[in-house]
Amino acid sequence: MSVRPLLRFWPDLRSRIGIYAVVLVLTLLANGIQLVVPVITGYIIDGPITDGDLSGLWLPVLGVLAIGIAEAVAMWARRMIVAPVVSAWEIRWRARLFDRLQYTSVAIHDSWESGQLLSRATNDLSQLRRFFAFGLPFLLATPVVLLVGTIMLFALQPVFGIIVIAMAVPTIVSAAMFERRYREASRLSQDTVGEITTDVEESIQGIRILKSFGRSPWAAERFALLSRRFQGLEVRKAKLDSWFWAVLILLPTLGQAGIVGVGTWGVVQGWTTIGTVVAGVTISMVLRMPIEMLGFLLADALMSITAAGRYWEVIDIRHDITDSGGGIDDDPDVGRYRGELTFDDVSFHFSDTDRLTLEHLDLHVAPGQTLALVGSTGSGKTTLASLVPRLQDVTSGAVRIDGTDIRDLPVNELRHLVSVSFEDPILFSASVRDNVVMGSPGADDDAVRQALEITAAADFVSRLPEGLDTQVGEQGLSLSGGQRQRLALARAVIGKPRILVLDDPLSAVDVDTEDRVQQALREILPDSTTLIIAHRPSTAALADVVAVLDSGRIVAQGTHEELLETSDLYRELMGAGMQATASARGTGATASAGRCPAGADLPGDSLDGDSLGGGSDSREGGRA
Predict the structure, then answer these.
(1) First CA to last CA across the chain, in angstroms?
(2) Which long-range contacts (CB under 8 A, 24 or more apart) does 159-163 make?
(3) What is the topology of this protein in the membrane according to its UniProt annotation (predicted)?
């Protein structure tokens, strides 16, 4: 059994090893002090009882009472001391795991099931806390107690010690067999817990899809299959455990029977006394509990080794998004940058394939310029956008800001300099204010309201039950798709970033709202360099320059009008979009004609009609 995963925690344990040593001593005292009671019992039988000296009982009885009190105090003190120590270690380990996940690239996150990460951060670390609080102290104390008890038996009568050793040999063999099989089952079981966690998380997040398509029975069956697999593994562990426990219970019983039989024969033959036999039998009974606990402790240790291994698997993930050197500035000065963005012979492929998603791509965005990136599905647009804030790193070439390779910039400074908003808006279980301020920590309410005005979100936010203080719920699902997108965009623009990367951030709003937002962005953030992934002709038309991406390469570049005349691919990409845009504008005009008179209050947003608790409104058109 390799304990290396547990030994890797030594640097953390070392800082509190003095206190932990006290815990080990108290555990040993609480477990081992009972071995003295059988010796006292034997003395009472062979002494005061045999001699009929009742006055000689007081001291031994008081000794037994003192031993009981000492055991209780030791157990109480152990629990009081160990709880804050192991809790502090658990907090440190969770923080380390969370920190590792925060600075790991998106590509690596995508390669892991979220449930596997969650189970490591919750179940596995809880298992380690329990092991260091209870399992390890008892696992270290138990062999000492068994050794001391065996020595005491040898001292009382050598043959008693020989009987105990004879029982120890099959116990050790059984433990070796149990360890190998139980460790394998434990690893499979804990991995299955991760799969179950992933399945539950996906089912909760996708509940609207499951209900809409009537696939709840399918989801239930999939969960049942995982649960049955987990059940089978747990039953397998229970069978192994029960077999080992049976051996651990049987062997001490045989040892006790041997001591009783041999001891009785010795009393009859005159080479031992009744008190010695009683003491020997009682010591074997005291040793029985540690022996039986050995099965539980060994199983706990194996699960903890597995949990530690799973924990270090995450911690050992290569930190591929790192600073080139120096410390991280918590308040970087991004005002010194002009915002020139250059992709210099950039190639990129994901870690699980050699196929290039981007291939020798060159692109230049001048300071303050808005460039729209257009391409078919799978052409590499989102991948290109993710390179700018270093959510992923280029395979070759370089992304430069003002001529400096972004890999040479501190990560914290780069992510103050670059702000992003994606098509799939992620909001957190917090208030509207907290979600928006995340883009500029410390921003006041005036800045929040200005960002909401820019993104045409101020109206619907003002109608929410508690305005800026309204809790948006998990992932913001209490809001419509368009509302979530506008809050996410407000988060991106509140800090007035030098470079703004927008991955189709308004796909769920109508064309008129998109036009208003883009015009506001140009007026309020005239110095921001903007790279926007566009699917609508209206978006491309408002950009200073449009670049057409095809199979990871820039195949055409120019203004919207120029590309309509010169690029067949661009006309093909924009053709359906232009028709959809015209249709959307016509629908908007019709809807406007039927609106309430000026000054009338509408219960919903005049653009998307959604209120808190509503779903996506049909008037918030999807991507054209």
Answers:
(1) 59
(2) 159/262, 159/266, 160/259, 160/262, 160/263, 160/280, 160/284, 163/255, 163/258, 163/259, 163/262
(3) Multi-pass membrane protein
Assigned token pair, 15: 């800082």
Residue 324 banded pLDDT, cuts 50, 70, 90? low
Residue 201 has what pLDDT?
75
- What the block records as the tokens of 14 is 């070392």
Q: Residue 241: exposed, middle, or buried by beta-carbon count in 10 A (0-12, 13-18, 19+)?
A: middle
Domains defined for the chain, CATH in brackets: 4-315 (1.20.1560.10), 341-528+548-555 (3.40.50.300)
User: pLDDT higher for 335 or 408?
Assistant: 408
pTM over 0.90: no
Provide the phi-psi class of 270: left if phi over 0, else alpha when psi is between -120 and 50, else beta.
Answer: left
**If you count DSSP H runs as helices and E runs as strands, how many of each does the chain have, helices first?**
24, 10
Q: Are strands 341-348 and 358-365 parallel, antiparallel or unpaired?
A: antiparallel
Q: Which pLDDT band holds residue 524 (cuts at 50, 70, 90)?
A: low
The first and second tokens of residue 512, run together, are 């008129």
Other CB atoms within 10 A of residue 58 CB: 10
Provide the β-strand partners of residue 373.
533, 547
